[in-house]
Design a protein that fits this description.
- There is one protein chain.
- By secondary structure, the protein is an alpha+beta fold.
- The protein folds into two domains: 90 residues, no CATH class; 81 residues.
- Helices cover 50% and strands 20% of the residues.
- The protein is built from five helices and six strands, in the order βαβββαββααα.
- The strands form two sheets. It has a three-stranded antiparallel beta sheet, covered by helices on one side.
- Helix 3 packs antiparallel against helix 5.
- The relative contact order is 0.12.
């Protein structure tokens, strides 16, 4: 029976290249990824160390199209590993005559980044603007209140501000990284 190990790692939607590299390094060390469980638990099974490319494709496909989608990759020699939140993970052994890649041209790489921005970043921005920003007023002006209202507002601030700042940091981090990735793809740096 193969040894199984579990690792916890968090990658944001803009860190998919780092995640691919992490999975490849684990496979080179003799542990192939067999599944992923949200929010960051990777399960690896012991295997022969091998250089295997892992690729993540952001494609939130409908149920009726999944079989065709997976068949397309299987026909090209890609093995399906897992899917989470619209990200599909595939792997393929590196051979001497070719370096496999799902996205080989800059247009498809740019299209992937644009799709992530449109389908993930923009909804996050709407949530941010509609849910968190209107609450700044309530979270800021608690000094003038007295009694139980003041205690409630202080408790609210203890919860609100860390959430607000972490959400703001995550949004800025992902936006900046996706913008950098797109620029690198446009300039042929990746």
């Amino acid at each position: 029976m193969n040894k199984v190990k579990r690792m916890f790692r968090i990658f944001t939607i803009s860190d998919y290249e780092r995640e691919e590299k992490f999975l490849r390094e684990q496979h080179k060390a003799g542990f192939k990824c067999v599944k992923y469980k949200f929010p960051g638990f990777y399960y690896f099974e012991e295997c022969e160390p091998e250089d295997v490319i892992y690729q993540l494709d952001f494609n939130d496909i409908k149920k009726e199209n999944k079989e065709e989608y997976f068949q397309l990759y299987q026909d090209e020699g890609w093995e399906y590993v897992y899917e989470v939140n619209g990200w599909n993970c595939f792997r393929k052994s590196v051979s001497l005559e070719e370096t496999p890649a799902i996205f080989t041209d800059k247009e498809s790489k740019i299209a992937q980044v644009d799709k992530v921005v449109k389908e993930r970043m923009l909804p996050l921005l709407v949530i941010f603007l509609c849910c968190l920003l209107p609450n700044i007023n309530y979270a800021c002006f608690w000094l003038s209140e007295g009694g139980l209202e003041r205690i409630f507002r202080i408790c609210y601030c203890v919860i609100f501000w860390p959430l607000f700042l972490s959400y703001l940091w995550m949004f800025l981090h992902c936006g900046r990284n996706l913008q950098r990735l797109k620029k690198d793809y446009e300039n042929g740096l990746k």
